[in-house]
Amino acid sequence: MLLSPWPSLVTVAALIVYFVVTINVGRARAKYKIMPPAMSGNPDFERVVRVHQNTLEQLIAFLPALWIFSVFVSPIWAAAIGGLWVLGRIIYAWGYYQAAEKRGIGFAISSLTNMILLIGSLVGIILNVTQSGILS
């Protein structure tokens, strides 16, 4: 089976976003003079760390959901929904870097798209199993 390039492109985009927020933690450490292993001390630094940590937490569910949806539902729809997830993470990071109160829209976009991918994956798997006669 040949994999679709679209979910692959979204996967690379998601990993680039994660790489950028990782770099931003290092930059913030230098800017706010927070030396490892310290993880607190300046609220601006702590917001950068939370963006990084939350993106990692979301990525763990997002990537398998993206690929399962791609296989059992549609690679094009997986990529479109996954692209919205990437956009949501960028909006989340941008807002959270400014103020914690500004993270909501980006968080909502990425959480909603993650739920769509997860539920869609489950429905796609169930339909596949029932249509293939595996349960018979």
TrEMBL record:
It is a multi-pass membrane protein. Gene3D superfamilies: Membrane associated eicosanoid/glutathione metabolism-like domain. The keyword Membrane applies. GO terms for biological process: leukotriene metabolic process. One of its GO terms (molecular function) is glutathione transferase activity. Keywords: Membrane, Transferase, Transmembrane, Transmembrane helix. It comes from the Bacteria. GO terms for cellular component: membrane. The chain crosses the membrane at residues 6-25, 59-85, 105-129. The keyword Transferase applies. It is found in: Membrane. PANTHER family: MICROSOMAL GLUTATHIONE S-TRANSFERASE, MICROSOMAL GLUTATHIONE S-TRANSFERASE-RELATED. This is Putative MAPEG superfamily protein related to glutathione S-transferase.
